[in-house]
Automatic annotation (TrEMBL):
This is Dihydrolipoyl dehydrogenase. FAD binds at K52, T145, G146, S147, D314. The active site is at H446 (proton acceptor). It comes from Cupriavidus cauae. SUPFAM superfamilies: FAD/NAD(P)-binding domain, FAD/NAD-linked reductases, dimerisation (C-terminal) domain.
Amino acid sequence: MQTIVTDIAVIGAGTAGLAAYRAAKAAGKRAVIIEGGEYGTTCARVGCMPSKLLIAAAEAAHELRHTAPFGVHVDGQIRIDGREVMDRVRRERDRFVGFVVRGVDNIPERDRLRGYARFIDNTVLQVGDDADGTVVRAGRVVIATGSSPAVPQPFRVFGDRLVVNDDVFDWQDLPRRVAVFGPGVIGLELGQALSRLGVHVRVFGVRGGVGPLTDPAIRAYAAQAFQQEFYLDPDAKVTDMAREGDEAVISFIDRDGNAVTERFDYVLAATGRQPNVRNLGLENTGLELDERGVPVFDPATLQCGSAPVFIAGDANDVLPLLHEAADEGKSAGENAAAWPQVSPVPRRAPIAVVFADPQLAMVGQRYADLPADSFVTGEVSFEDQGRSRVMLKNRGLMHVYADKASGRFLGAEWIGPRAEHIAHLLAWAYQQQLTVDQMLAMPFYHPVIEEGLRTALRDAQARLRA
């Protein structure tokens, strides 16, 4: 048993943890970073990067099937080799993970501790087992332990036929039939990708949710658009779930009111994520915990109560996105270094993108959070938008929101082509607190999809002046 004394201990070597460690070191403090699992961020190993690899393969297959309207005919059968698809997913995934691991390897060995950490008290940690472990006595602690898939207990009936997104990217081949529970970001992206790669897919949701959308009109349009391509029921009525042999058996009432029973090779639970705090020994601290066992913290400074403990990234479940985790980690590290003087996290414009086809996006304030009668809505349909129609990508509906009193752009929700790019333009406009008039004074090239955004802004402008 050895003891290490340090200014700051960071638990977790993911995106937030690495940012916190680097910020602490940049502030001139002694710091250690502790990791019990594999190195490599959630994004690189099981999140945004491998999912985009699967989506890219699916898009290639989809485009080949839909060339005829252009007068371009692909003769012969399109063959999808599942083993080759998944081999590329894994190889490129491992390459991305390698970049992260090399970054961790550049951290001085004396600052890296391998093993799972548990709190002994507010700022004393036990790393590893009692006999051969290490005690870390820190002045301050940053919790950056990330999150993991949350699987409701009823799904456990499927045994090893139940998978989460982490498991998908280790498949050696594509299965024939997959049921997806949860049409959120992960469920929509993976469900559509698997469907386009020839997998029989059923996507089940609850309470009508589609991705992160809160605008009822946009959500309804999105549901209808995806239902034209694969089975999606955002408010499914599942009557029974069972395991028979190597198959998952699901009985449900379909959208037409028929009782249906289907068998699947796997059930993908895309039912949300939960902070990784269960085994941290937080009960040994003086920190107040919420009903999930997560320390109660100030979202502005990330400090847990009045203790010299900070929580950042997916572990606090505020904004589980890579760029937000990096920002929070940096702020947590800086605040830990400066404690007891702490500063608010400099928040960027909210932005979310779902890489389905059409893509979904949200920027700024959500429709659901805007006070009624305080804003106007500008609308555009992409069905007749010039560039979108040229490319036969003309599916989509956008709503932009503007403040009635000031004309300021408040936010947007939409489904449409190349939404990831428009989302960045709108995020910059929101962060700069631009008005609709100021946004319309910006250049719009022709012919581009962004002209659809101009149409929506013009509609909002007209409503502001009415």
